[in-house]
Design goal:
Layout: E1 2-9, E2 26-33, E3 45-48, E4 56-62, E5 65-70, E6 75-79, E7 84-86, E8 94-98, E9 101-105, E10 111-113, E11 116-124, E12 130-137, E13 144-152, E14 155-165, E15 174-180, E16 183-188, E17 193-197, E18 202-205, E19 222-224
Antiparallel strand pairs: 1-2, 2-3, 4-5, 5-6, 6-7, 8-9, 9-11, 10-19, 11-12, 12-13, 13-14, 15-16, 16-17, 17-18
């Protein structure tokens, strides 16, 4: 059997009395088909979270279990075999190895950056700790940023390199989805995919043939997260 899972949220009903700014319950849709693509009627379905979590997105899978995050930062687990949401540990942090480091699916990174909201981040520990924060400006209109932090040798709490980068065309936010060697694959809420080369500190690919994007600014204020 072949499973296809769509993650998002329940669509608001016209005239339902809910404000557009209010989050809706998260929802996933499961479709099941034969290997040849023939759909199996009655095997799939729609499954909704309890409470107004906002849209869900899939971040990991393990066997029949799918792990999801909501817009509010809450973690969910769904079992494809049992067709139900499973209880998860409180404050469970989803992470997965990628590019010799780890992609961490949480918004409170080891370092906080003034005026910046983290969506997720990648971290690699070694002689120097390298952290790549993906997200958006916290104030004003949403504007995607990628922030690279490098620590002093053998001192992960002292940052000696800090720089921020912004994609063009302008996107609302960025998330790290995969790292291979020096190449970071980044996804925007608008569905655009960017590639960032950490060795050259440049975007090496942008949608619609845009030119490479260079460093925007380096005078950013960072603090140790508590």
């Amino acid at each position: 059997r072949r499973y296809m899972v769509f993650a998002g949220s329940r669509r608001g009903e016209p005239g339902g009395g809910r404000r557009l700014s209010e989050p809706l319950p998260g929802m996933i849709i499961v479709e099941v088909s034969q290997v040849n693509g023939e759909m199996l009627a009655g095997e799939g379905g729609q499954y909704q979270t309890e409470g107004a979590t906002g849209p869900l997105r899939i971040v990991d899978a393990d066997g029949s279990k799918i792990y999801l995050l909501s817009d509010t930062g809450k973690t969910f687990a769904f079992d494809l075999v049992e067709r139900r949401f499973l209880p998860v540990e409180e404050n469970l942090v989803l992470s997965r190895p990628s590019g010799g480091g780890e992609i961490i699916e949480r918004r409170d990174a080891p370092f906080s950056v003034q005026g910046f909201q983290v969506e997720n981040y990648w971290i690699k520990n070694g002689e120097q700790t390298v952290i790549v924060l993906a997200g958006q400006l916290a104030d004003g209109p949403k504007q995607a940023k990628l922030i690279v932090l490098v620590s002093a040798p053998d001192d992960p709490k002292t940052i000696i390199e800090k720089a921020a980068y912004s994609p063009q065309p302008v996107a609302s936010t960025l998330r790290v989805v995969q790292v291979e060697g020096d190449q970071f694959t980044l996804l925007t809420n608008e569905g655009l995919i960017y590639m960032f080369d950490i060795s050259t500190r440049m975007f090496v690919f942008a949608p619609h043939g845009e030119h490479p994007i260079t460093k925007i600014f380096s005078d950013i204020q960072i603090n140790l997260s508590k």
